[in-house]
Amino acid sequence: PVIYAVTPTYARLVQKAELTRISQTLMLVPNVHWIVIEDSEKKTDLVRNLISESKLVATHLNAKTPPFEQLKDKDPRWKRHRGVEQRNMALKWLRENFQPKRGKGIVYFMDDDNTYSIKVFKEIEKVKKVGVWPVGLVGGLNAEAPIIDPETGKVTGYKSGWKPNRPFAIDMAGFAISLDLILEKQEAQFSYMMEKGLQESEFLSYFTTKEELEPLADNCTKVYVWHTRTEKPTITGIVPGLEV
Ligand code: UGA
Ligand code: MN
């Protein structure tokens, strides 16, 4: 199957570093199609050049977050939804380009700041409809993980330090969905109407139920992706002529 890795990204000092890490992870993954969506009015040369130098099969899009949702410098980040516009743009692109059913595709929302083991992509390849696995360093725990009933092998709940009773207490990095399902459920998308932190839950509700989830990564006992966050650097000046 082709893995469609959907990466929203926005301009900031660490952007090139983040995209370098992500793109060089993807270079180790066979059959990946990288969809990069810039949070900007226009596509930038920085991102364009980085994608072309990576030689990855890629689609470069842009979709600007509307002003009412933009994070102010002093806002804590949970005050705003992040990546909504960009992921919806990727969904639109997939639906416009791959109708009718294309088969053998899997969509994974891959934020630009997380850390991904190449092992997670081996798990994604196994997804039939919706696959799930643990995510490290998120939800107020060392890892957030689906709870599996050893008898039935099905998901019965979630270990999370943050609203464990969410319909799906799973971070964006902890699931992947078959492209056919994405194409089938045309109306499924992210929205600013959703409660903060419930994007994943509400989006997954369009496609599946807890009982139908496919537990991966050794029955959800292994962590292959980490919700790392990059410290904002404090700089006191700009050296001219250097793109960072
Ligand atoms: C958590 C989840 O891991 C995200 O997938 C989810 O979108 C977010 O919460 C949320 O609830 O909205 P967090 O680490 O707080 O993530 O979010 P960021 O990593 O700051 O942003 C997620 C993605 O959106 C990143 O790929 C980032 O580059 C992009 N983004 C962020 C933008 O495109 N524009 C922005 O203004 C901010
Ligand atoms: Mn993040």
Automatic annotation (TrEMBL):
Its cofactor is Mn(2+). The active site is at E200. The keyword Transmembrane helix applies. UDP-alpha-D-glucuronate binds at P8, T9, Y10, D39, R82, R87, D111, D112, D113, H227, T228, R229. Pathway: Protein modification; protein glycosylation. It is a single-pass type II membrane protein. Belongs to the glycosyltransferase 43 family. This is Galactosylgalactosylxylosylprotein 3-beta-glucuronosyltransferase. It comes from Exocentrus adspersus. The chain holds residues 84 to 327 of 327 of the full protein.
